[in-house]
Write the structure tokens for this entry.
Amino acid sequence: MALRIDQDHARFKDIVRGRIKANLRKYIQKGELIGRKGKDAISIPIPQIDIPNFRFGERQKGGVGQGDGEEGQPLSPEEGEGDPSKAGDKPGDHVLEAEVTLEELADMLGEELELPRIERRGRAKLVTERIRYVGVAPQGPESLRHFKRTYKQALKRQIASGLYDPKRPVVMPMREDKRYRTWRVQTRPESNAVIIYMMDVSGSMGEEQKEIVRIESFWIDTWLRRNYKGLETRFIIHDAAAREVDRETFFHTRESGGTMISSAFQLCSEIVEQHYPPHEWNIYPFHFSDGDNWSADDTRKCVDLMRDKLLPASNQFSYGQVESPYGSGQFIKDLREAFGEDENVALSEIKDKDAILQSIKDFLGRGK
């Protein structure tokens, strides 16, 4: 019986997972899902699925398809009926929330966008040591004594020698009964990665544009964390000047002023040089802007910083241009002219929330 219940539960989880995958494009656009994020999972509302159960009708009713009604008439009241201003006495529809791990979401995202696995830099492999307990031995330090195995060995000895009294079940381990955990040091390669997010917070970047950046950044994080065990994130905001901030400030700051994109690129380059040697780290700079820069001279400075410093150190440099009614949109054209053939530069235009999924594919679809 327990096996059948487990099988039914597994089948139902497959149905829920399939429904989430089928509606993944819709879920990705919802920023409120990020607020449901726990330590390892996200709660996703799935109103389309009812938990299976039996429903019995009244005995005097007819069989299937019998009774009063017209063709096309709903079998039950439509959702949302009733006066919302008054309290009611009828039960309402309940929304099922499915707990989905971030790893499952990353896999769904990869399947939906057909994303290739990240090809990590071979030189970015770091060797780390881990202690693994592999067995039990009769000698060792007292701090590693295995109490259960020690008393089990003492009990076996007392029973074999006839000293064990079931009416007075006292087990006294002797020196030869003691057992200790044994260990082995394992070395394993680890690939570390850092994402450096840069965002234009000048007056032309409104709340809608920042929300798009917030949602897309979350899903990029989710995918890259699936590929890397040690993932760090750094955040830079800029208008005419750049500064490093924490995650909360990055997503909620409200600033205004002019735009000098080179200030962010310069700070990003300094962070990489000081903290992330390219031979040890996989480096992913992401910059989001509305494409409106202060001057052509500053754009040329940005191109020089990318060519001389950022691109040689990075796995890939990604630029996302969020459409704004106030931005000129010129910067992505300048980058296409300078780096249109460069495989380490990914450019994406993000018109609205519907374009987020394609933008993620633009950035991550190369497997860099």
